[in-house]
Design a protein that fits this description.
Keywords: Membrane, Transmembrane, Transmembrane helix. It holds the Pfam family DUF6653. This protein is an all-alpha fold and 168 residues long. The protein has helices at 3-10, 15-21, 24-30, 33-42, 44-47, 52-68, 78-90, 99-114, 116-125, 128-157.
């Protein structure tokens, strides 16, 4: 099973949940989660095992967030399009997407994932520069990935005959 599908299944993302997640409030309140999680884990330096309270809260928010807001009234915002594009991305095995989006998304996913290495290292050895620079890089690459997904959603809603995509 692909990692992205495994993550989607672990989040229990039904069609109704995806519709709610397309709300820009859902999108934008998820953006700082990695930085806040990094800070929460780092806080073990100051508050010891009590750091598990904010860590647990952030994990809970990550699971609740896609269900916490109503579906948006329209899907015209960049954030809504990013979520729609992510659905296309996850369904790419059954509904092909334009090749240039597939390559770009894979590269950005890889860069975002690799950026977690300095986060983990920095949190392990208590190096703030490594931890927070890695978190910022991972967040930047994730937002760039989201921009690619918004572009993908646009392209999938207006496919060209040569891109291999289908209209949704």
């Amino acid at each position: 099973m692909r990692l992205d599908k495994a993550i989607e299944q672990s989040m229990m993302m039904s069609d109704a949940t995806w519709a709610r997640h397309a709300n820009p409030l859902s999108f934008w309140t998820r953006v700082p989660i990695l930085l806040l999680l990094t800070l929460a884990i780092w806080s073990r330096v100051w508050i010891g095992w009590w750091c598990l309270a904010p860590v647990a809260g952030l994990i809970a928010w990550t699971l609740v967030n896609p269900r916490a807001f109503p579906p948006p009234t329209d899907l015209k915002s960049w954030a809504s399009k990013a979520v729609l594009g992510e659905r296309h991305w996850l369904a790419r095995k059954t509904m092909p997407i334009p090749q240039h989006h597939a390559r770009g998304a894979l590269v950005l996913s890889l860069l975002s994932g690799l950026s977690l290495i300095p986060v983990a290292y920095g949190l392990w050895v208590l190096n703030p520069w490594s931890a927070f620079l890695g978190a910022m890089l991972a967040s930047m690459f994730k937002l760039w990935f989201c921009d690619r997904m918004a572009w993908l959603a646009e392209d999938m809603s207006h496919p060209s005959p040569s891109d291999g995509s289908q209209q949704t």
